Amino acid sequence: PFDGMHVGAMVVDVASGETLYSRNSGRRFAPASNQKLLTTIAALERLGPEYRFSTAMRADGTMGPEGILVGDLVVEGVGDPTLSERYYDDAEVPLRDLARQLRDSGLRRVRGALVIDAAAWDSARVEATWMWGDLPYGYAALGGPFVVAEGTAQVEVRGGAVGDPVVIRWWPLGDPDRFTASARSAPASDSVDLDAELQGRPRGVEVTGTIEAGTTDTLELSVQEPVREAAAVLHRVLADHGIEVDGGIEVRRTEPPCRAAGPCRRLPELARLESPTLMEIVQGVMEPSQNWMAEQLLHHLGAVDGERAGPSEGLRVMRGILQSDFGLESMDIDLRDGSGLSAYNLVTPRALIQLLRTVHTRPWAAAYAAALAEPGEDDSTLERRLEGLEGRLYAKTGTITHVNSLSGYVDTADGRRLAFAFLTNGSGLRSSQVRAVIDQAVRHLAQGPGQS
To answer: If we measure between CA atoms, which residue out of 293, 151, 139 comes closest to residue 229?
Structure first.
């Protein structure tokens, strides 16, 4: 059944550089989430493994002795991808930290608005080559300079009596009209299936389909205006901490006049939040294959040279790093996003091997390998794959329709570390069938030369 499948593979001893196997290694393949190897390595190369995102809150106005700010409270976001329960007990914990810092600064009331400064971020909402049907779901969440909960909401759907409309609620809660539902409760004998569709105005997601009467299900859905939603959540958290904002919320995408004419006066800082290190962020991307965080890294790369954060600038910077610092050939990569959700990305197996071999020479090589998925690792994409290779296999999976890939490092029985890249396209088979063949190849490598 695999005769019609397009396969590219390459295996190299990372220490000696010896090529142990090569098949179609110069041909281009859609990599799926193997694209995250390129994104995260480029980010680590440019920013360093100890880099931290820093979100500041500033006073654009005058604060009197009673703690009243006559002006706006400005969030100076840089796209921190960690404001979620992946790194905190829940997504509101870092916002509560900011609120406590503001209280400690003496702030009690804001006469103006809570402003999210988004002027330095590209306003493009979604990568043009993503599939429309993916957009309502959490794995295709949208980004921005200040976003909580990875741009998603956990939407609980509760069925009532047969024929009744469902009741929904979600968290974190910002805009009370962000999600709607037309789904109905159906008898267990019917085929029940919840779905989600994009809404136009206001931008949101509608829960559609059916759910078994009297049962509850939870969907992870994409927030369609994630920056405004994060502002609404922060606005509520501030009120919970006794800080009232009279002027509502505003997402400001225009440059202030002073910035257009020259450097602006630095606004007084009232609070600041530092993210975990970039290597910890990379681990959060690679082990579970988290799309949204990868896209946040790509967008942020666009701003490292003083340009606007966004996909086009990010891809330009990423391409430059991969070619100049890692020696990848320009024709070996065609980059469309940071996560691999786009089927328009292309990469050759030899480009992935060149990348993995060069990483092996970096001082952060061991930490990067440990940030990849491993067999048996909780919540990783290899949690239930390749049992018996625990502590010897560090790899990135990749799966979209008709694409399955696995690339990374495997340590042989005789102690050699191999870099491998297995890319398959167009199988027309179930992913489980293709994964089984890839896993068989990895086990073969792990035995070492002359052992199979």
So the answer is: 151
Instruction: Write down the pLDDT at residue 452.
Output: 45
Non-local (6+) Cβ contacts of 11 within 8 A are: 19, 20, 21, 22, 353, 418, 419, 420, 421, 445
Q: What do you get for the CA distance between the two ends of the chain, in Å? A: 24
Q: How many CB atoms lie within 10 A of CB 131?
A: 12
Q: What is the pLDDT of residues 363-385, one digit of tens each?
A: 999 999 999 999 999 999 999 99
CA distances from 410 to 14, 42, 391, 437 (A): 10, 22, 9, 16
Assess contact for 426 and 444: CB atoms under 8 A.
no
Q: Give the residues of the chain that fall short of pLDDT 70.
A: 124-125, 201-202, 256-264, 449-452
User: pTM (2 decimals)?
Assistant: 0.94
By DSSP bridging, strand 167-171 and strand 333-334 are: unpaired
Tokens of 208: 């559609």
